[in-house]
Structures are given as C-alpha cells and as structure tokens.
Amino acid sequence: MAQPRVSFEFFPPKNLAGSFRLWDTLKVLAPFEPGFVSVTYGAGGTTRALTHEAVTAIQQNLGLNVAAHLTCVNATRAETLAIAESYRAAGITEIVALRGDAPDGAGGFRPTKDGFASAIELTRALSDIGAFKIRVGAYPDSHPDAASMAQNIDHLKAKFDAGADEAITQFFFEADSFLRFRDACAKAGITQPILPGILPIENWAGLCTFAARCGAQVPAWLRDAFATARRDDRCDLLATAIATELCSDLVAGGVEHLHFYTLNRPELTRDICTALGLSARAPLAQVA
Ligand code: FAD
Fold first, then answer.
1. Distance 256 CA to ligand 1 centre (A)
2. Which residues of the chain, if any, have pLDDT below 70?
3. Which of 25, 56, 79, 86 is deepest in the core (most CB within 10 A)?
4. Could you tell me which of 12, 93, 25 has the C-alpha nearest to residue 57?
5. pTM (2 decimals)?
6. Residues with Cβ within 6 A of ligand 1?
7. Between 3.20.20.220, 3.90.1150.10, 3.30.2060.10, 3.40.50.300, what CATH number should domain 5-286 receive?
8. pLDDT tens digits for 237-258?
9. Which of the listed residues 66, 143, 261 should we mutate to test ligand 1's pocket, taking the one with most ligand atoms within 8 A of CB?
C-alpha cells in the first residue's frame, strides 16, 4: 500500500495540565513527520490568545509547519486581519480560514458588525495579503446550512476561487462519502487538494452529540459496533480498527494525505498511523 502523508489537529491548552497533555501528544506524533499541524480557534473566537500562543510556541520550539485556525466570529474585519498580521510577523505562513458558528453554541452564524460575513470573504482578504497558504473547511456529508450537496460544492468552489490552496474535510465514517465528494468536486472544476479529516473515536457519546450538530452521518453499523464494544470494554480497539480500515480504503482510492483530529490525545492516532505502516522516525527534537 502507498504511504500517505499525515497532518494533525490540536486544540490550544487552557491550563498547565492541558499544556503538558499537548506536549505529550506532540512528543508522540511529531516523529511521524507531519506535513503540518494545526491549532483550532475556540468556538466563538474564545481562544484567540491561547491559539496564538500555542501556534507560535509549537513553531518556535519544535520547528513544525503550524497552521493557525481563524474564524469570522465575534471580531471586526480589522481585528481579524490584525490577528493574521500578528501571525505573519511571527513567521506563521499557514491559516485554516473558517466562518465559525454562533458563540453561544446555538448553531448558525451571525456576522459581527463590520466583520467578515463568510469564509469566502475571509479567504479573499487573507489571499490578498499574499503571505499565507490558506486551507478551508469542506463537508463530504454536506453541512447543515447547505441547501443541497450541489450548493455545498459550489460554496467550496467559491472558497477556492477566492484564493484557498487546499481544503480539509469535516470527519466522516465511510470512505465512499469522501471519494464520491472528491469526485463530485473534481467534476465541478475543483483542482486543488482536498484532505480527508479523520476522527479517531475517543468518546462515543461526545461524538454522537457533535455529529448531530455538524451534520456528519453516523452509520447504523457504527452505532451497533460501538454498542457491543462498550459492553465488552473494547472501544479503543474498535476505534483503531475502524479508522485504520477507513484510512486504508481512502489510500486505495487514491488519497495521498490524511489529516487527523487528535483531540490532544495521541494514542489512537499513533496506533492508526502505525497500522498504516508509517514509522515514527527521529524522536522529537526541540529547536530552541
Ligand atoms: P462555509 O464553508 O462558509 O459554510 C459551510 C456550508 O454552509 C457551505 O458548504 C455552504 O453550503 C453553506 N453556506 C454557508 N454560507 C452560505 C450562504 N450564505 N448561503 C448558502 N449556503 C451557505 N470552528 C471553529 O469555531 N474553530 C475552529 O478552529 C474550527 N476548525 C475547523 C476545521 C475544519 C477542517 C472544519 C471542516 C471545520 C472547523 N470548524 C471550526 C467548524 C466550522 O466553523 C463550522 O463547520 C462552520 O459551521 C462552517 O465553517 P466554514 O468555514 O466551513 O463555512
């Protein structure tokens, strides 16, 4: 089997214990030599400073390519562009540009007065700066705000037309969902890479809640499999097996790069990478 490239998503730690957990996660996963790692931006823009600190600390200390997530929520255009400028000044050249959702978790999106009204607008403004590799979100199972799959794909195309370089998908559980979506995007004229987002299932109940909110399909066979695995206390084993099979099917379908949602827990992602035949190379070296 061809060896895929990998990348990893983390969230910014909120306290000292969280910082140690992120550091431990990086120690385990950095030896897989990710093409980049990314750091999320809390819902509603709640982790603005923490994201900035985590992004710059990872880049300065570990020398990894780090992509900072940035949303349109709760900030004026000037404030959002000032954050982008501070990344540029710190030598960060990769941004994941997102619309975001309402800060109160109520779903939906309300633009801030004088703020960016969509991911398309944000992407265009970042692209005009000319300093960033820009990735955007994509939705193989569609998105709750999309009227149809065709509109979902048109919207993604508009983000590429606005200057995005690559897309990363929301998580999904059936390789066909992604491969069909990728092929439909190609048919719609999208030529840029679309990286599948892989979520190793750490927490079944949490996953079901989140999937319902973001429109990701949870197939019946997966529900049945987890019901049995929970009874037998074998959830980690099942999660590893399912994600490894999904990744293998994607690679067999021509996918060259897998993006993992790690939730700052390295074990499942490490085991999946290992099962895919990727080897952890040199141990993590601190740059500074
Ligand atoms: P868009 O692509 O702009 O919109 C999503 C869909 O909604 C589109 O496919 C389109 O069909 C429809 N739509 C949007 N606007 C319109 C319109 N005007 N008319 C008709 N249809 C429309 N959230 C965070 O808060 N922080 C993060 O760090 C974060 N990281 C993420 C990383 C990835 C890889 C992904 C996939 C999502 C992430 N999210 C994050 C979640 C994201 O903010 C939500 O999914 C949000 O609802 C959509 O953001 P977007 O930029 O993908 O939106």
1. 24
2. 104-107, 282-288
3. 25
4. 12
5. 0.96
6. 40-41, 43, 69, 71, 96, 98-101, 118-119, 137, 139, 143, 145-146, 151-152, 155, 168, 170, 197, 214
7. 3.20.20.220
8. 999 999 999 999 999 999 999 9
9. 143
